[in-house]
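User: I'm curious whether this sequence folds into something compact or stays loose and floppy. Could you predict its structure so I can see for myself?
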Amino acid sequence: MHELYCRTFQKGFKLASKVMTYREPELLEGENSLARLPARIRQQVNHVLVVTDKGLMTAGLVLPFLEKLTSEGVSFTLYDDTVANPTIQNIEEAYALYNEHSCEGIVAFGGGSPMDCAKGVAACVARPNLTIPQMKGVLKVRKNMPPFFAIPTTSGTGSEATVAAVISDSQTHEKYAIMDPVLVPHVAVLDPLLTVNLPPFVTATTGMDALTHAVEAYIGKSNTAETLRASEEAVQLIFDNLYETYIHPENLQARANMQRASYVAGFAFTRAFVGNVHSIAHTLGGYYGIPHGLANAVLLPYLLNFYGETVHTPLAKLAALVSIGDDQDSDAVRAKKFIEAIQQLNADMNIPTKLKGIQNRDIPVMVKRALAESNPLYPVPKIMNESEMHYIYQLVKG
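Assistant: Here's the prediction. I'll summarize afterward.
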């Protein structure tokens, strides 16, 4: 009965999504494309809130952009206290600055955390009468947010193309998403120069985050021809370029290709959704601060193996696309080889096979939260029960 309810809900949502309007961001792409953004911002607004983090400030990535804003006559207010897995407190602090300084637009400068924090602020601007927890879930914002400019500095979250802002509650350790088509940025900058100095491990785990987005969207049951093509493009780009960016970080073409992969994977999952890998990863981020890309990278092979024959056909197609396996292989064999290729890619980039710090006492609550996130919304290949979900947590526990 529970499975029937979930599948009925998913079919209904898929039909409804066909009539939803999904904005596609205006893209500024290529080397030094960030330099073109301040003039583009000035076309719309005179004062922006810039949301970033201390690491990016220390690395010196943000300052040239702020100077260019000033020279273009755009005033800014800076919020740089975003933490990994941004909290409700982060969003409330940044939102207070937005109001205090009469900002007219928002710039998200950074990886997934500043992007999520900035989207949370945008949701608050759009819906000032709702608290952040009240906007949890799907289609709770629905009002247009202020002009929003996204500058991703990692190639992984795809947040510059997505409807989601993922937020952590530091009191309850819950991590959840606000999902609404109005949260798609208006303008996104894909400048490969911004990703060149990423630490190798961040390059690796954020790249695996993008792969997880593409694969989970592809194996789900809410695909369209458009999302299938986007997932396929992302998987191909990632297998061709991720390891190259890991060993040769200065390869700008490979960096640009990974930015494209992250973007199109974001496009795919914002329309076709993710799955159990993400719902489990969100609980691990909420409880232990485990970086999202790392959690996804470790979890992905375990979940794909768990799904078994329900994913053999789509995984075999992806394997063929990236020249894994032989044409005479059965779908089951080729799917297995694809999962092994993911495991090998993880190993080549020194990503562990287990996650340290998971406590048995926390698992029952995490299981309930992960199941509540996945069901009924995510059109996963196989709907899990509590014991199956518990088994996965034990498998990945280091």
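Summary: The chain has a mean pLDDT of 96. The longest strand covers residues 105-110.
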